[in-house]
Amino acid sequence: MKILVFGPRDRYDVYRPPFADEMPVELVFRRPDQTYVQAAQENADARIIFVDAITDVGPDVMDQLPELKMIHSEGVGYNCIDCQAARERGIYVCNNKGCNAESVAEHTIMLMLMALRFGIPGHNAVIQGQQIQMKQKAIAAHAPGLFQCAVGLVGFGDTAQATARRLASFGCKLYYYTRHRRPPQVEEDFGVTYLPLEELTAQCDIISLHCAVTDETREMVDGAFLARMKPNSILVNCGRGDLVDNQALRKALIDGTIRGAALDTIFPEPTPGDHPLVDLPPEVRDRVVYSSHLGGSSGGAFAKAHLTMWTNARHILNRERPTNVVNGL
């Protein structure tokens, strides 16, 4: 059985589980000089695609692979895979639900702390020999500690729940919004209070995005959303860049509508240096913390993900239904 991989070989070497070596499979990687369609054409007998979560897989690729049975995201996200086209062709689309929840939760809190506690300007000040000046500036800013903050989680799936568990130890007030409110026992267990989205954005000091990209949520953080946020609040995005209207957030940062942002994900990826959320005026840059979409990139998260991927490959090999099917088959 052939597996076509749209992603770098190195991590497949590192995270391949031992049982995969015993499977009668051929792993083929797309060459850098190939388009995705060309790679599919040259490997028309592939039954599985393993694909990075930010790589588009549409019907143009699927139509080159008559034996394709499964497209498996290497991550949790699958919005770049045309799920409808796959369903029409009888192809399973699978993800690694929950594999990186702990990793993303840790990263989310790191970004919150960096944004609150002047992580980037403090680092730069020491390098520039301005440590004392920066310290005095930070003290005079009267910025809150995380323990003083009300944190609003937009979405309440695996990553938001893992984040809530960890934030509880900081003493934060925790609120959440999701399309379908959780039962009272779940709210009590996680120490969270439900608020409608408009109230959550208006009441919380930190807004943290943890929802999937859908037609409803794409660019949900628009001008109206940002205008409802508190003037000293911070937006944290360890979800997907597509959740944010880039120009609206740029304007809010420049106008001082919100205090700052901490962004692990920015649309599009790769993010160019002249991106509107990167090429900011000098007086704004210190209020934004960037990360290279590393939230879910711990070794433990990738080990879990590749274990699920290879387990599902074994299901396909044995003509069994895979787990974590997300396109309704």
Could you explain the architecture of this structure?
With 329 residues, the chain is an alpha/beta fold. The chain folds into two domains: 2-99 and 299-317, NAD(P)-binding Rossmann-like Domain (Rossmann fold, 3-Layer(aba) Sandwich); 101-290, Rossmann fold (3-Layer(aba) Sandwich), CATH 3.40.50. It is 37% helix and 15% strand. It has helices spanning 9-15, 36-42, 59-62, 83-88, 101-116, 119-127, 131-140, 158-168, 184-190, 197-203, 223-228, 246-255, 282-285, 299-317, and strands at residues 2-6, 26-29, 46-51, 70-73, 92-94, 150-154, 173-177, 193-194, 206-209, 234-237, 260-263, 288-290. A seven-stranded parallel β-sheet has the order 8-7-6-9-10-11-12, sandwiched between helices. The chain has a five-stranded parallel β-sheet with strand order 2-1-3-4-5, sandwiched between helices. Helix 5 (101-116) packs across helix 8 (158-168) and helix 6 (119-127) runs antiparallel to helix 7. The relative contact order is 0.15.
